Amino acid sequence: MVDPTLLLRRRERLAVRHMHERQAVARRALAEAPAHLLVERLAECLAEAYGIDDVELYQVDYRLAALLPLGGGETLTSGDDPAWRSFDEQAEVVDGPARYLPVTMRGERMGVLRLAPVTGHASELAEIATMLAHELSAVRGSTDRYTVAARSRRLSLAAEMQWELLPGRSRARPAFSLAGQLEPAYAVRGDSFDWADDADRLYLTTLNGMGEGVAAASLTSLATNALRNARRAGLDLGDQAALADQAVWAYHGGTQHVSALLLQLDLATGLVTAVDAGSPRLMILRDGEVIDQELVAQFPLGMFEGTMYHEQRFHLAAGDRLMVVSDGVLDAISAAGQYGDQQLASFVRDARSLAPLQAVRSLLADLRAFVGGDLVDDAVAVCLDWAPA
């Protein structure tokens, strides 16, 4: 007689082997697919391996207000839709025979994969959705299909330049979660943000190039790349600002400048090194209280020749949320008046339970509702949660 325990173990090992085989087939299908046919090749694989005959990728649009189907069809804008619940909660959502899975890579939320009909295989299908996210990231530079499909309308040229400049919209690691958003998303001009992380540090910069249209976007691009060049050369934060200042001055001779806030976070200790070069607003949410983090303002980048920048330091506490907003947020005006400090502080407190990407999305949606449409001035909002191990 066969030992039931041994039989069960054999079945479990066989199930695991079959799971790995199915995932390997999906990985190979994605890796070998033409860049513009990732979803189609994945759908063929899922039909054969799982009997799934309805596959759709919904990508989040630039405004974070709609989920747009790659294959055409209904745009999803209601937060109650199962696809949006999956996107917001970053979890599987089951709706009858359909299953919605987040398509996310290293915290970068790209959209949601809808599969139907589905029975079982929850964890392996979730991993396949993550594989798709990695492949989408890998091919974006070689095909416009996914970029175009994520737009609900045409971008202005300046906005095209700004979005191409971003390293991503969100990032997550065990020690932190970060997200940023630009508004008006389809016509942003000079406002932007940049970030990079390594083993023990996170660099975060927010920028606002003066002027309008392409001129503002070009100015911000120059400053961003100058800061990256200095950072990658191993320069300290103050020297990074000084090099970018020289680059902007060399091209514009003081007629144009960029307001910037440079932050470097030690991921182990919470020590923040900062350079405030005419920066946006910096707040910390700690234990339900909004704290204005005071920094000594220094000259914007490129305003004067040979400016020396001084570093300042402060500490985050475990569980702190850091929020950076540009003047386009505080100066938003409607018939009811100015959005202002009090309303912003109230929002930051009320949004504490939201993940950073949801928080910046909700803030800018709140602003659009406040002004009754798109913002007149550019705005950038960045949210960072620090949660050391």
UniProtKB/TrEMBL annotation:
It comes from the Bacteria. Residues 173-386 form the PPM-type phosphatase domain. The keyword ATP-binding does not apply. Keywords: Hydrolase. Gene3D superfamilies: PPM-type phosphatase domain (3.60.40.10). Pfam families: SpoIIE. PANTHER family: STAGE II SPORULATION PROTEIN E, STAGE II SPORULATION PROTEIN E-RELATED. This is Phosphatase.
